[in-house]
Amino acid sequence: MSSFSRSAQQWATFARSWFLIDARMQPPGKIATMCSVRLQGKHKPIYHALSDCGDHVVVINTKHIAFSGNKWEQKVYSSHTGFPGGFKQVTAAQLHLKDPKAIVRLAVYGMLPRNLHRRTMMQRLHIFPEDELPDDIRANLTEELPQPREIPRKLSEYTQEEIDAFPRLWIPYVAASRHLLKTEFPLTITALSVLLPLNNVSSGDERHFDSCHWYLCTTSFWFKPKKFKIRTPIIERCFSIKGVGLWDNFDSEIKRSKSLSAFRRNAKIIMRPYDIE
């Protein structure tokens, strides 16, 4: 004999739960996917397309969502009133400044099935730009869903023990043109087109380069790729640090390229200009 009555079992089966999702630093598409599953009730074994068995979803911190790349300026939201000249088009940044809840609402609405249940399911979606919730909604919450994307911690959030336990990586040095240039970041020519003088590199320099790591030397000055103009006499040679005997056979490792596009296609090179003032 069951410990619960039939009515209690049926009530527990069809009861609507309230899920909480924190959208801080999360992509709207990932948040919309989680909301769509809960609003439709697809996470339940009793799910059916013709039954309305979805749960409530509460999304907070929609004001602090994140996009990758340049989607804030490139992603466009369009609408039309149906009348001549009624076409409206705004970027994601403009829409977010006007309404911090609009992007998440449109993302969830677009992931729900195109039927008459969609508006009913949207009524169970509760969006808040900040983490402040009304008391009645806060009292109904049953579970907080984990964030789909892990937020990296700030340097100030690490303890001193974690900082001390972080492995110390070696930093290679290259002697070039009366200066000792220190390679700070493992960059490639496709990531940042910074060109530095690497003249007079002899075989007696430090041999810290590994065949699996590609480095681009940096100094105190930087050049933006779009504003820096390439000149033919400056960039004529490049050398690849792939291989064991690079510094022993430096002259034999120098390779010539026919065009600048060949430099950019090959990410595993260090560009070697003659001089940059």
From TrEMBL:
Principal location listed in the UniProt entry: mitochondrion
Gene Ontology CC entries for this record: mitochondrial large ribosomal subunit
Entry's Gene Ontology BP terms: negative regulation of translation; translation
Domain of life: Eukaryota
GO molecular function: mRNA binding; structural constituent of ribosome
CDD domains: Ribosomal_L13
Gene3D superfamilies recorded: Ribosomal protein L13 (3.90.1180.10)
Compartments where found: Mitochondrion
Family: Belongs to the universal ribosomal protein uL13 family.
Origin species: Poecilia mexicana
InterPro entries registered for this protein in UniProt: Ribosomal_uL13, Ribosomal_uL13_bac-type, Ribosomal_uL13_sf
UniProt keyword list: Mitochondrion, Ribonucleoprotein, Ribosomal protein
Protein name: Large ribosomal subunit protein uL13m
